[in-house]
Amino acid sequence: MNQPQSWEARAETYSLYGFTDMPSVHQRGTVVVTHGEGPYIVDVHGRRYLDANSGLWNMVAGFDHRGLIEAAKAQYDRFPGYHAFFGRMSDQTVMLSEKLVEVSPFESGRVFYTNSGSEANDTMVKMLWFLHAAEGKPQKRKILTRWNAYHGVTAVSASMTGKPYNSVFGLPLPGFIHLTCPHYWRYGEEGETEEQFVARLARELEDTITREGADTIAGFFAEPVMGAGGVIPPAQGYFQAILPILRKHDIPMISDEVICGFGRTGSTWGCLTYDFMPDAIISSKNLTAGFFPMGAVILGPDLAKRVEAAVEAIEEFPHGFTASGHPVGCAIALKAIDVVMNEGLAENVRRLAPRFEAGLQRIADRPNIGEYRGIGFMWALEAVKDKPSKTPFDGNLSVSERIANTCTDLGLICRPLGQSIVLCPPFILTEAQMDEMFEKLEKALDKVF
Ligand code: PLP
């Protein structure tokens, strides 16, 4: 058998790519990465790329943060791995649960660990099913989410996700209901004000609950700002309009903070930025600054008490992953929380967010940019063929793929999402690096349009 020689050919021969536009790979090849330096990644040819994608929203402290590396090494030396079951758990797990409840918006709570954000959403759904069944409502099982939401890839979390591509798997599963995406610019109707748009979405929620029956709905999940849907902040007043409806019908509201948590929107939690109180929080990604695969379900006081009672009733919560509460992951998470909150990272996001917005505002003056949107260090530019009518581009290789590919050639990683280009750099980004990001992006836009 002829072995391929280059790194790129080896990657393309033996690896099956996930979430990758294959025409782009065939056209421009794979970037095979050896290491990272601050917010940059370096490929096998020594080329540096400013990663305005933070890996996948998660490498918020950059790729070589010494404190995080030392925390991992120290814990590997002490105790390299263990589970959190059968009446045993590591001291690091104990400390992280205390810390997560302390930094959560809740007065008290409980934490359950997973290996990823998908598993944390999946776990939360199972927890709700378990809880409602224990409370005598086994039929309370349907899950409400929104179109364009992203909650993961397991069969359950992919069913929660509101993206058409999941139909290739025959998903969503029955009982997963998607409501209108709260993106006023795209889904607001002709002549409708933002206030009227929000009122329409609240009515849709109320009508859906009436149609399905509140006693059949287990919970409502939402990202404070939709991430993989294309960075979509909620329409003004959206959460304030829907929360009272959920409360009235005893439907728990879960804030999926896998992207928004720990500083991305400028405060510790997206729910604080948008001023609402959920019943539970889903965390991952930034939780370990991307240095370990880990997720967590953080229950607020009411759900914690009810789940506790349900567990006591059958003497066990029969769920968990081999590496739930892994001590190395917990040690890294403890350090990551400290780094983001106390080493000026969250502060840097708040300080540079206006500069970020000003840069995007300038670019959005271009005739083929329909909208810029975002908050903190998560932003998107939406490309349009015709600005006044907001008509999207068409064609096989989407315009956002072409922009992102051109950026990669220029040494900038950004993410094409639908018709949008997403920028979500690490929190350590300096002003000069932000300028470099905009300079390269503008050069790419000049080439594509
Ligand atoms: N929830 C949100 C909001 C996400 O953005 C993601 C991943 O991007 C997930 C859940 C799934 O997390 P993971 O990829 O770790 O399974």
TrEMBL record:
InterPro entries: Aminotrans_3, Aminotrans_3_PPA_site, PyrdxlP-dep_Trfase, PyrdxlP-dep_Trfase_major, PyrdxlP-dep_Trfase_small. Coiled coil: none annotated. It holds the Pfam family Aminotran_3. One of its GO terms (biological process) is gamma-aminobutyric acid metabolic process. Keywords: Aminotransferase, Pyridoxal phosphate, Transferase. It comes from the Bacteria. Its cofactor is pyridoxal 5'-phosphate. Belongs to the class-III pyridoxal-phosphate-dependent aminotransferase family. NCBIfam families: PRK06105.1. This is Adenosylmethionine-8-amino-7-oxononanoate aminotransferase. It comes from Paracoccus pantotrophus (Thiosphaera pantotropha).
